[in-house]
Specification:
single chain; three-stranded antiparallel β-sheet; 4 helices; 3 strands
Length: about 140
């Protein structure tokens, strides 16, 4: 697969000026998002990284920082379109966190699926407990 676009200088500028919750960070990086050893093939390129500063949704006494990765589209958006795309990425992180923390009778019915190949920003209730406890590296947590 191949896509091309000029460097999104407008997006770089917006990201530099963006702030959100206390302790959260955001940046752009050319990186490998999905390593071949855990995902079957490598996926890489310009990536928006939103780092949260929160607590473990299963142990609220445990602070945790989590990096959320978003593929930057090969697009020639104007500032308004890039601004909306950036906002939507933050909204997806909030949705993910909502799925992590929403609990009824000690069950997280919408816990995101983190397993390789899954989209952790899609709300699903058709997952198994093992799927919910599988990390993006394919490791099942106790």
């Amino acid at each position: 697969m191949r896509q091309e676009a000029p460097d999104p200088t407008t997006l770089f500028d917006l990201v530099e000026r963006t702030t959100y919750r206390n302790g959260w960070r955001v940046w752009l990086k050319d990186m490998v998002r999905d390593p071949a050893d855990t995902h079957g093939a490598e996926a890489a390129g310009l990536t928006l990284v939103i780092q949260t500063n929160t607590v473990n949704s299963y142990n609220h006494a445990e602070p945790v920082r989590v990096n959320h990765y978003f593929i930057v589209p090969a697009a020639t958006y104007n500032e308004r379109a890039w601004l909306r795309w950036l906002f939507d990425c933050f909204a997806k992180v909030e949705l993910h966190e909502c799925m992590e923390f929403f609990t009824v009778d000690d069950v997280k019915p919408f816990a995101p699926i983190h397993a390789p190949g899954a989209d952790p920003y899609t709300v699903t209730e058709l997952s198994t407990d093992t799927e919910r406890r599988t990390s993006f590296r394919g490791e099942v947590k106790a």
